Amino acid sequence: MLRALGGRLAGHLQRWIPEPFVFAIILTLIVAAAALTLTDADINRVIDDWYRGFWILLEFGMQMALMLSTGFAIALSPPVARLIDRLALLARTPGAVYLLVMVVGGLFGLVSWGWGVLTAVFARELARRVDGIDYAYLAACVYLSGQTWTAGLSSSIPLLLNTEGNFLIETGVLGGTIAIGETLGSLLNACYVAVYFLCLPLLMWLMRPHDASARTMAELAETEHAERGISVAEEAASRNLTGTTPSDRLNNSTLLQLVIAGAALWYLVRRFTRNGFDLDLNVMIFVFIAIGLLAHVTPMRYVVAMKRSCANISGIIYQYPFYAGIMGIMMFTGLGTLISNWMSSSATLGSFPLIAQACGALLNLAIPSAGGEWAVIGPALTETAQSLAAGLSPAEIDAYTARIAMAVAYGETSTNLLQPFFLLIVLPVMGAGVRIEARDLMGYLVVPFVFVYGTSALLLGLLPV
């Protein structure tokens, strides 16, 4: 039954899901219409706020671009290639491939959302080696495996809450940071991760298409796939003049690379020694840079790897400003606060986590950025949380505020399964030389969305704070 349902949804939604950029344009018009209808803003103010918002996520967008590119550079290194070769031996059938991608992708997601690129590289290699894999369904598995990121080390909202001088502290909404032990280290988050690994790989295995109806990578190929591109090391070597000139020696100096990587690692060791395992977005990117430098050995190899990996960030570069513009409309016209206040107006201590999850899920359709979304609704939700928890101890207030933040994060990441924006991470890798688009796989994600949202709501409603 699940196989048939997934196939029908995939076929039906193929007709309705536009390109991610078109999705952004349509959402811009919907949010603008809502602002004109529900707030006192006129058309000139809405357009002005749209323009104003275009630029407010430049720093965050650059962080996301670096997270993706530095993570992909690690994926292109020889150590990761050897790891993929070993893992590929574990899967000999299409069903085993779907399971393995879900598990490996889930583990990568716990490290960073940018490591979804590694999952895509891994899945693409498996599709080369195992016959009968439905390539669009495999891409759906890759995208779904990213659900763990919100519970992992690169989760934007917990890291922002733990960042000194974040906007909630600057505006006086919070008195200080909230440690990641209250968010990522909570019982709630541990259960969320456990549900993913125990249930979602099995769900996708049960939903897998019949082998006879599978559209394989070879069938979808735009050109012959027999030839593989040259490696990073080979391209780096091809840039040498003679191999003995001073510039060649500098470009290929292992010593230079090790010195700078060693300095980065020394900083990280000292930071973690002083502050504990204290992570924010900048630290995560710095960790990826240090690992990438070590994995690629020489400056020229790292340059080549980063050049290749930056090809995957074009969608973020030109689409983030449009989503920031949507965020600007919601923030500056007051529409976002209006929606969050309306949804939380009748909240109780027990019901508010579910309301926060619904807010996160709804607004993510317009602002597919956990950090950006939190910037819009975080202040109002945090103030409501602290008001509802006013009779508790300071430690309990922090724990409750952390739960509300995680509720928004879980809601936000669940509707990524209905929102094609973050396919910008997956499709540049999975779609290279292959005819595959967002609409080819979104239908396979409807049933997983219902499962993810429903189980997250149960955890938020039943687990003690």
Number of helices: 25
Q: Report, as a whole number of angstroms, the end-to-end distance.
A: 37 Å
Query: Gyration radius, to the nearest Å?
Result: 23 Å
Number of strands: 0
Order of helices and strands: HHHHHHHHHHHHHHHHHHHHHHHHH
Q: Pairing-aware structural class of the strands and helices?
A: mainly alpha
Can you summarize the main beta sheet?
Answer: none
Domain module tally: 1
Describe it.
The chain is mainly alpha-helical and 465 residues long. It has one domain. The protein contains 25 helices and no strands. It has helices spanning 2-13, 20-38, 43-53, 58-75, 78-88, 94-111, 116-129, 135-145, 156-161, 167-170, 180-183, 187-207, 217-220, 232-238, 246-251, 254-275, 281-296, 299-309, 314-332, 335-344, 352-364, 370-388, 394-414, 423-430, 446-462. Helix 3 (43-53) crosses helix 19, helix 14 packs across helix 18 (299-309) and helix 21 runs antiparallel to helix 22 (370-388). The two termini are 37 Å apart. The model has no long low-confidence stretch (mean pLDDT 85).
What's a concise summary of this model?
By secondary structure, this protein is mostly helical. It has helices at 2-13, 20-38, 43-53, 58-75, 78-88, 94-111, 116-129, 135-145, 156-161, 167-170, 180-183, 187-207, 217-220, 232-238, 246-251, 254-275, 281-296, 299-309, 314-332, 335-344, 352-364, 370-388, 394-414, 423-430, 446-462.
